Amino acid sequence: MSDIRGKPGGTGRDLQQVNEKLRELISSLRTEKERLSESRHSASTPAPVPAAAEPSPPAAVDLEKKRLAAELALAREAVEHATAERARLRDRLAEIEAEHQRVSDDYVAVEERHSELAQLFVALERIHGAPTRAEVLTALQEIVINVVGTEELALLEVRDGKLVLAHAFGVAPGPLREIALGQGAIGRTARTGRLYVAGRDGSPDEADRDLTACIPLRVGDRVTAVLAIFRLLGHKPGLGESDQAVFDLLSAHAGLALHLRAQAERAGAAS
Predict the structure, then answer these.
(1) Is 226 helix (H, G, I), strand (E, B) or coil?
(2) Are 255 and 179 in contact (CB under 8 A)?
(3) How many CB atoms lie within 10 A of CB 248?
(4) pLDDT tens, 82-137?
(5) How far apart (Å, rounded) are the C-alpha atoms in residues 243 and 234?
(6) Pick among 3.30.450.40, 3.90.230.10, 3.40.50.2300, 3.40.50.620: CATH of 132-269
(7) Does residue 216 carry a pLDDT above 80?
(8) Contact 149, 233 (CB under 8 A)
(9) Can you name the residues that pair with 223 across neighbouring β-strands?
(10) Where do the record's region annotations for Disordered lie (predicted)?
């Protein structure tokens, strides 16, 4: 420290300067103390750490697994039920379609049968409504052409123990003018009274190769004539059940109609 005694008049100023420096030092020390205090406080307070998710306890995990397993089982059961229901509906649909097809087939069969019955009714009416024998023969010819489907036919009547040609259409009459009973398919039909259909009773004879059917015409139990049907038209490949019904009708009614008209004509001629 400077010797203030050797300097008269400067003592007051020196003390003032010393005091100011002491104040500045004390103020600086206080500031530094506050700064250090704040630093220690910041260092002692830890920074906030994000909270970690608490691990689920084992019981909660097991419970969630059981819940998911139950939902999966229900879903599988629903899928199985839906699959079974779809299969059931598919089977039911197949049954309905089969039933629809059966009903449709039955309807078509009924319609065909109705048409056949209508044809038979018209044929029966034509046969019994014809006033003369010639018109009965004409009606018989039209029935065979339009219903059976042939334009080749002949009607032979039993006279004096043999068959005599009474009417022919579309065939040469020469070989058919007289046929003995039992000769060929036509003669056998007259003798036995049984319907002949080509191919049903074995291979036909050479003389009968063009024959399709021979129908016995009856009056009661007696065969009075034979209707011979030859080749069918091109659109008809063969005979069917409906043709059998027509043959039965002709067998029962055509012979009777011819017989009655012949009797009436003979009675008219006699009178």
Answers:
(1) strand
(2) no
(3) 13
(4) 999 999 999 999 999 999 999 999 999 888 778 877 878 888 888 888 889 999 99
(5) 16
(6) 3.30.450.40
(7) yes
(8) yes
(9) 218
(10) 29-58
